[in-house]
Specification:
9 helices, 60s Ribosomal Protein L30, Chain: A, 319 residues, OB fold (Dihydrolipoamide Acetyltransferase, E2P), five-stranded mixed barrel, alpha/beta, 3 domains
Amino acid sequence: MSIKNRPFYFFCSLALFVFGTSLAAAQVAKNPTISPAPSYRSVPSGSKMKFRGVVTDRNADTFTIRDASRTDYQVLITDDTSVKTYGGFLKSGKKYPVTDIMRGLIVEVEGRGDPQGQLVADKIRFRESDMRAAITSEARTAPLEENQKRMADQMDELYAVAQEVRQQVAVVNQRVDAVDQRVSDLDNYDVQESASVTFRTNSAVLSPEAKQQLDDLATKALASNGYMIEISGHTDSTGGVAKNMRLSRSRAESVVEYLTVQHHIPARRFITPMGYGKSEAVADNSTVAGRQQNRRVEVKILANRGLTNRTKTSSTAKP
């Protein structure tokens, strides 16, 4: 081969390589492989353990933690679990409800193994700065790429590989990534029931009509298996930003308190209630009717997809 023809053969080879890579990526997108079921490291029954890692998945009573060696453990939360920030010199840490354990939070867990191989958590500790970072990420509902990039800072090698693979097939699986993001945001939960209760101007007090709506929703929730409840508070455009943020949180907390006290729904069933102020209007704030619709709290019952599917399968199998 002459030196003069070498560039021509080089670019032909490069074009064939790129074409082959694109074809392989398209084939992967058309025939995705089925992901294996999550694998957890079993904790010996009665064995006391303490480890640190990042929360990668959250369900009703359990969450998954991945340590520095990329080993996954399933942690069981009970009403006796102590959840606090690390304390300083002569100062105890700040207490948090068990519902504040969320994906992306770096925690230190101490407890004992149960017969199912789970770690029954006695203590959960974390830094205040890590909690703020996790809350910010959850509130913004960051896109999948940004969310996994943040996780990559904590789990360098694993998520670096995942990021590289996504970049190679980004053009082909863009729509798939959008669907995966929505599923990831739900943590494998589906919206089973929902309700929107409204409030008077500058008020977080539940009206009789709102209580009736919550009574009906609570009855449906208590009849479900593996459910969680998502609550978000909102305001109209009246008032300043800071005031509306406080008011929207107060409205969300009023709903949580009513469902907890009046219907005895365990606190661990609630995803951290959020207040969004006036940022997510559903109607025109320039009209009285529109502002009334925006002064609301949205309540959603999220049903565990795995438990729901198993229940349907069992019902179908019965003679």
